[in-house]
Amino acid sequence: MNVAASVERANKTRSPYARLFAIPGTKAFCISGAVARLPISMMALGIVLALNHLYDNWTVAGSMSAAYILAVAAVTPLYARLFDRLGQRRVGRVALGVQVVAMLAFAFAALSRVPIPLLFALAIVMGFTQFSFGALVRTRWAYALRSHAGDDPRLLNTAYALEAAIDEIVFIVGPILAAFLATSVHPVSQLFVPTLACGIGGAVFFSLRSSAPVVERVEVDAGGAAVSDSGSAVSDSGANGGRADSFSLLGGVRGGARGGSRRASRSVLLMPGIAPILVVFIVFNMSFTAFDVSTTATMKAAGVEQWLGLQLAMFAVGSCVGAMIFGSRELKGSHWRHMVVFLTLLAIGFALFRLAMDNFLLLGALEIVAGLCVSPLFATGSLIVKSLVPARSLTEGLSWLTTAGSIGTSFGSTFAGAVLDAAGPHASMMIPWIAVACAVPLAVLGWALSRSRGTGGGRDGGRDGRS
């Protein structure tokens, strides 16, 4: 009764954020998930800072960072599938322990200056142990809203915008902390701090049982009826004979149980509408690490490397503000249309960065303004995926989005490192705006496909798209 009364009172307030945190357990998983995400803003940059200091080679530093990111991208969907099928706590406790050990091994190896091939191998192994805390937290939000708020699509929009804002806060704190540790404490010290944050935040996150999505075991009988553990029929549709098991995240089966376990195990990649959003994320995410690496080289050449973290954080400050604005308003029309608009504005911003890159104060101001589009881009991508995949595969769908972004950022750091060594930072700073500009027509194509197929993405995509 007290919980219901608390939620009802919060619903009467104007702030959607108050409504979110009135739901039991949301504060705990939101905060612990934020702490556990610190490595996403520190490890790749930390590798670049450490390797460039140790070996004075941007190509090696950028390539090792890219190898780590690609390894992360390769396994993130696999972990997500396990989380969806077996449960967050059951998989997470083991995966987290392995992850912390691998991160410590890489950090100590870098500290000991082991040979480059061995360090490359350890970076790849470390990447193979990483999974997306952001996707896990977003899945918990969807489960919490479904359980306590009637799956309100407006609140989900706010929750995903909040998570995008938290990502940006992490990207504000992370680069500043990494640059400070690398320049003021020790060139490798910035590799140990995210390991500690991941271990503590992750342990707390996976200990929270009440907010963890329920994995309901569903059996498909010979007649095709999906029967839960309690014996009640979930859905009834014609299926082939035999008996198979399937699993459903968030309690229940969406769209029936036709096809039994074969359908339940269908990869998110094969679902209509997923490929276009993943391609867009691969292309435009090249811009961020290219910008980071180019700015790092520019400030190092100017002798102001100690201010690098603050400079990079200005972009994240703008993105954080953009997330809070986006989450407090309900934009009309298609999510794909929003994607096209945000990408266009970001491309213009990166082009201005290239012109202002030697004036760090002006560059910082432009970063704040252009950053207003970044979090809304990621939140919009999550909303598109949410409208395309069934609830039982939501973590996998969101993780594929993370994977696409990781592939893009690895390409960005690789290209930027090579261009830096060949032509300098002024040339490498061209990569960000070109990458985002190339993503615009791809987003337009994705928008057109969603309208023709009716596969989500907003009102003109065949569905409301705000689920």
From TrEMBL:
The keyword Transmembrane helix applies. The chain crosses the membrane at residues 28-52, 58-79, 91-110, 116-137, 158-182, 188-208, 268-288, 308-327, 339-357, 363-385, 397-418, 430-449. InterPro entries: MFS, MFS_trans_sf. Keywords: Membrane, Transmembrane, Transmembrane helix. One of its GO terms (molecular function) is transmembrane transporter activity. It comes from the Bacteria. SUPFAM superfamilies: MFS general substrate transporter. It holds the Pfam family MFS_1. PANTHER family: MAJOR FACILITATOR SUPERFAMILY (MFS) PROFILE DOMAIN-CONTAINING PROTEIN, PTHR23542. This is MFS transporter. It comes from Bifidobacterium jacchi.
